[in-house]
User: Fold these one by one.
Assistant:
Number 1:
Amino acid sequence: MSILPIVISGEPVLHRPAEPVTEFDAALRALVDDMYETCEAAPGVGLAAPQVGIGKRLFVWMYEDQDDAPARGVAINPTLWIAPLEPGLPGEDEVEGCLSFPGERFALRRASRALLRAQDIDGAPFEFETGGWFARIMQHEYDHLDGLLYVDRLQHPESRGAQKAERRNGWGKPGLSWLPGVDDLEG
C-alpha cells in the first residue's frame, strides 16, 4: 500500500465526469487500499478516485460517527438520490472542506438525507439510506464523480471567497498536487 498524491482544483480529471469501473480485479483492490491509506494520512473522511488522478467512478469513506453503513467502505459505480434541499442559506454547522481544495472551508447547504446504491469491491450491489453529516459526505464524494468540487456549488458570498482562495493559492491550473504526510496541507 502507498499514499497517493491528491490533485488540486484545476486538474482536468477533477472537472469532468468519471468513467464506470468495469474490472473488479487486483488492480482495483490495490487502488482502493491506497485510497484508504491516503484518506487516513490526509486526514479525510472520504476520497474519490478523481482526487488521486484516476477518472473512475468510485470513492472510499472512513467515518465512524454514523450507524447506517460500515465505518469504512467503498462505493463503486454509485448512484445517489437526495432529499430536496431546505430553502435558505447554509448555517454555521454546514461548513465543508475538500482535500482537492486544501486548507479552505466554506458553508454549503446539502440535502439532509441520501440513498446510496453502489457496488462493493467484489462487484456485489449494496445500498443504504443515511442522514446528517454522513449524507453530506456521500453527496460531496459523489459530486467528485460528476466532475464537481463543492466550491462549484457555493452561493455568493461563499463563492467569491473560494475564487479568491483559488487565486491566492495559485490553483486552477493543471499539474498541482500535494502528498499527505509530506506536504503541510489539509482539507
Number 2:
Amino acid sequence: MKIVFFGTAGAIQSKDNANVSFSVVEKKLSILVDSSGNPVQYLKRVGIDPKKLDILILTHSHTDHIYAVPSLIHNLWLMKRKKPLNIISNQFTINKAKELCNVFSLFSKESLFLISWVSADDREINVSPMIKIQLFPVLHSIPTSGVKIITSTSSLVYSSDTSPSKEVISRARGVKALIHEASGTLNLEEKLNKTGHSSGRQAGEVAKKARVEFLFLCHFDFREGSVQDKVKLEVKNSFQGKVIVPELFRFYEV
C-alpha cells in the first residue's frame, strides 16, 4: 500500500500547502480521500490517471474537505471519463456534497459518467476480495467519519478531524499506519478539543495506545507559523514509533 499527500494544512492553506487530502494506491486500485485544492492535477502529478480513479472518500462536509468535489466531477466530465466513480461517505456528508454539486447543475450534464453514492455511516465496504474500507464516527463538530483501509498487504486508519477518540484507538489497533490530525501544540489543547480537534501530543498518545508502527501527522494550523517541528517534537514525547510529517507529492509505502 502506498500513500501520497496533496496537502496537510488545516482549514487555512499556506502559500505552499493545501488542505488535507491524500491518495491511497494498492496495485491498480486508487483512492482519493477528501477533495480540496486541484484534485485532478494533483493526481496527474503523481502518475494517477484521474479518469481511472476508483474511489473518492469524503470524511465530512466542512469546506476544506469537500469544496473541490464539484471541480473534480466537472473536470472528469470534460475529460470524457467513462468509468463509474464510487463516492463513499456518511449520509450527512453525501447529502451536503450532492447539494454542492447541484449548485452547478452537474448531474444534468450530458453523458456524465455514473456516480455511485455509497452511504457507510458505520460499516464495512468490500471494494474487492483483497480491499476493505470501514467508516466509523469520530468526535468533531459535525457528523464526521474516520476511515480504515485494509488490503492484502497492509492497513491504515485516518482519524479525520477529531478530538482524542477511543474509537480511533480501537479501530487503529493492529494496523500498520495511523494518519492523525495534529492541529496545534500542547498549549492550545483545551481550545482544540472544544472545536473537535487534537494536539500533536494527543495524536502521539492515540498512536501509542493503538500500537501502530507509523504515525503520519496532518491538519496543521499555519496561522501559528511553521508548527510542524514543534508538533512533531511533542508527539515524540509520547510515541516512540516512526513519526512522519509528510512531504507533499511523495509516495510512502506502508
Number 3:
Amino acid sequence: MPYLALLFNAFVWGLSWWPLRHLQAQGLHPLWATLLFFALGGAVIALTRPQAWATVRRTPALWVLALASGATNAAFNWGVSTGEVVRVVLLFYLMPLWAVGLAWWLLGERITGLALVRVGLALGGALLVLRPVDGGWPAFQGLADWLGLLGGMGFALTNVVLRRQAAQPTSARALAMFLGGITLPALMGTVLAVQGVIPPWPPLQLTWLWQALALGSLFLIGNMALQFGASRLPVHITSVVMLTEVMFAAGSAVWLGGEVLRPTVLAGGALILLAALMATRDKA
C-alpha cells in the first residue's frame, strides 16, 4: 500500500498538465487554478487541525516553507500548462543540483566529491535538454523553461526547510505549505493581471469550477497518499518511487500532447535522473 500511495501521488502530478490546460482553455489561468487547489486543501487542514495555526504564526521558518512551497507549485503548474511538458519536468527535477548548495548553506552539510559528481551530471543533462533542435548553444526557449527551473529551486528549498523543521508537527508544516500555495499565486496573479500579463479571474462558470474542485480534490488525496507512503518507507525509497512522475509526465505528453522525445532530451533526462537517483543514496 505505501508504494501504491506514492505511485498515485506521482501519477496525479505527472498528468496534472492535461487538466490544467483544459482549465486554461476555459479562461482559468494556472495561477488562479493553483490558488483554488490549495484553498481546498488548506481549508481541510485548518478545520481538522486548528492548533496548527498557532504553530505557523510563531515559527518564521514555516513562513519560508510557505514561500518555497507556493513558488514551487505556482511555477510548476504554470510551466507545464504553457510549455513543453517534458522539458519543464526535467528542468524541475534539477532539484538535486540546488539542494547541494542549500543543504551546505542552511544545514551545514559538507559538500562531498559524490555531490560534485551529481552537480556535474545534472548540469550536463540540463545542457542537453536545453540544446535547440537545429543545434547550437543551449538556451531557454521561453517562460515555461524558466518556470520549470524556478519550480525546481523552490522544491529544493522546500525539502531542505522540511528537514530543518522536522520537529514541527506535520499538520503545521502541511498548513504552511498550503498557505503558501494560496497566498503566492494570489499575489502574483493579482499583480500580473493588473499589468495585463495574464487574464483576470474569469466569470464564475460551473463548467470550470467543478473541474477545478475535482482536480483540487485529487491533489489533496495525492498529498495524503504521499504522507501515508513517506511515513512508512525509508526516505531514499520514497525519493526513487517519486521519480516515476517523470515517466508519467513524459508518457502522457507523448500520448495526449503529441510531444516528440528527441535523442538529446532523452540523454539529458537520463543524466538528470541519474543525478537524482544518486542523491537518494545520501539518505539510505
